[in-house]
Each structure stands twice: as C-alpha cells, then as structure tokens.
Amino acid sequence: MQPVRNFKPKPRLVDSKSMQKLCIFVGMTTFSYLGWWAGSQFGGVMTAFFTSGLLSLIGVWAGWWSFRRFFY
C-alpha cells in the first residue's frame, strides 16, 4: 500500500498544546477547590491547605488523563 500524496490534515480549531494546558488547568483548579473545601470541613486552615495541595496534584494528573483520553 502506497502513501497518499499531497495529504493535508484538517486544521484544528485549537492547538493541541493549548488544549492540554487548559485541561490541566481546569483539573488542577477543580480538585484544588474540592481539597480546600474538604479540608476546611474536617480541620482548620492548615488541613485545608495541605488537602488542597494534594488534590491539586491529583487534578494535574486528571487533567492530563482527560486530555489524552478525549482530545488527543
């Protein structure tokens, strides 16, 4: 089978790298807010701070995963 000559892929509306950054930003922000809320329910400011930080790391992974799953 020979390759198709003069093949041009469809132009994308959004750059792939920009979409990846957006997914990571949304995941990090959402999970960080959930961590802050959960931490403030069970403890004080320091508990909220640490759970927000931990869940923001999980949010980065979740944003990256959702980009790879749905947009790549």
Detailed description of the structure:
The protein is mainly α and 72 residues long. The chain has one domain. Helices cover 74% and strands 0% of the residues. Helix 1 packs antiparallel against helix 2 (45-70). The radius of gyration is 19 Å and the shape is rod-shaped. The model has no long low-confidence stretch (mean pLDDT 89).
Major β-sheet annotation: none
Stretches where pLDDT is under 50 for at least 5 consecutive residues are none
Series of H and E elements: HH
Query: Which structural class do the helices and strands define?
Result: mainly alpha
| Radius of gyration, CA atoms, in whole angstroms | 19 Å
* Strand composition percent: under 5%
Q: Portion of residues in helices?
A: over 70%
The tally of strands reads: 0
Number of H/I helices? 2
Shape: rod-shaped
- Kindly give the count of domains: 1
